[in-house]
Amino acid sequence: MKSFSLGLVVGIIISSVTFYFFDDVIHHSHEPVSTKDKALIDAVIAQNSIKSEVQEAKEEAAIDESINSLFNRATSLMGNRANENEVVSLLEEALSKDPKSEKILTNLSNYLLSIERAEEAKNLLISCVELYPSNELCNGNLTNVFFNTPEAQSYFDLCLKNTPRNALCKYNLAGFQFMKHDYKNSYETFKELESHLDADEGGIQFAKEDIYLNLGLNARELGKKKEARNYFDKACSLGQERSCTELESTK
Q: What confidence tier does 98 reach under pLDDT thresholds 50, 70, 90?
């Protein structure tokens, strides 16, 4: 069975206004408010509005500080796979404080994918892309999640519409095309990635040997055996073991 190689690849406060009644009977008056009284009322409203804005700013700052603290604790634990449940718990707690945080949506979903919990990442990625259409990592990872589903092509189309230069999206698309035996388009997509190997495409980089291997696989399917051997040889020299095997079997 043919297979391509997968690389490694965020009101008016009125309680302070006191009404004094000096008579036993309340007189309902419809006299217009004087300019002086209106100015006083406006001043009270303005003062309360300022207090409210200051309080909101303080509350937002406290939330941000809490989220950053949780995020930093989570990232400090990511190096050890034994900590994965704690990492997820910390990031989920951070997300509960700000469900629209691009940073947390991106990192939590990406981490879940890295520990093979794709189903949990799916809805987070969908939310991330809906809220932040230009987020390259969320768009690219969404194509990972739907790679082997009937909806795959629609997510590749969405990814390229949102982020036309997204290298992760293109890499996954090239692999998808190969699996569909569309070797011509897969070859062309990998060739496009080859031309950007030394560039940082949206913070996403790929190992040269993986690109060379996949170009070799496609070239061989297209009958370009000499070119295929050349790519296998390049990848093999970089330590890509499968390429060494493919090189030997491509005569």
A: very high
User: Token pair of 159, please?
Assistant: 């990814």
Confidence label for 29 from pLDDT (cuts 50, 70 and 90): very low
Taking a C-beta distance cutoff of 8 angstroms, is the pair 88, 73 a contact? no
Q: What is the CATH number of the domain that holds 59?
A: 1.25.40.10
Name the token pair of 82: 């034994």
Query: Where do we find the tokens 């981490």?
Result: 111
Q: Which two tokens stand for residue 139?
A: 């768009």
The more confidently predicted of residues 43 and 169 is 169
Q: How far apart are CA 239 and CA 116, in angstroms?
A: 26
- Residue 242 within a domain: yes
Alpha helices in the chain (DSSP H): 35-77, 84-97, 102-114, 118-131, 136-145, 152-162, 167-179, 183-194, 208-221, 225-237, 241-249
Contacts of 111 (CB under 8 A, 6+ apart): 78, 87, 88, 91
Structural domains in the chain (count): 2
pTM: 0.72
